[in-house]
Amino acid sequence: MRPRVLVCLGAIAAQALVGRHVRVTKDRGRQLDSPLAPYVTVTIHPSSILRAPDDAARRDAYAAFVRDLAGVARVLAEG
Q1: Can you give the three-state secondary structure of the chain, one letter per residue?
Q2: What are phi and psi of 45, to 5 degrees?
Q3: Regarding beta strands 5-9 and 39-43, do their DSSP bridges make them parallel or antiparallel, or are they unpaired?
Q4: pLDDT tens, position by position, for the chain (79 residues)?
Q5: Which of 3, 5, 27, 40 counts the highest number of beta carbons within 10 A?
Q6: Hey, where are the domains in the chain?
Q7: Rounded Cα–Cα distance for residues 56 and 33 (Å)
């Protein structure tokens, strides 16, 4: 397979695929250098949204996750 886009969901996936230097808090939503795909990015694992301490934090985490995925959608739409 030759994916155009690779989205790593969470630190474990990102570090396993891209390298131990990847930090979700620092790298989320950015394009990362990798031979695996032309566009590689990392975001939080969706389960982390459920572990947020309260409703407001869950809403914020969900909104940030959606923004990350919207960036991926833009890349895919560019073709």
Answers
A1: CCCCEEEEECHHHHHHHCCCCCCHHHHCCCCECCCCCCEEEEECCCHHHHCCCCHHHHHHHHHHHHHHHHHHHHHHHHC
A2: -80, 135
A3: parallel
A4: 899 999 999 999 999 999 999 999 999 999 999 999 999 999 999 999 999 999 999 999 999 999 999 999 999 999 7
A5: 40
A6: 5-78
A7: 34
In sequence order, the 6+-apart residues with CB closer than 8 A to the CB of 42 are 7, 8, 9, 10, 11, 13, 14, 18, 22, 24, 27, 28, 30, 32
Token code pair at residue 28: 């989320």
At position 78, the amino acid (one-letter code) is: E
Burial of 34 (0-12, 13-18, 19+ CB in 10 A): middle
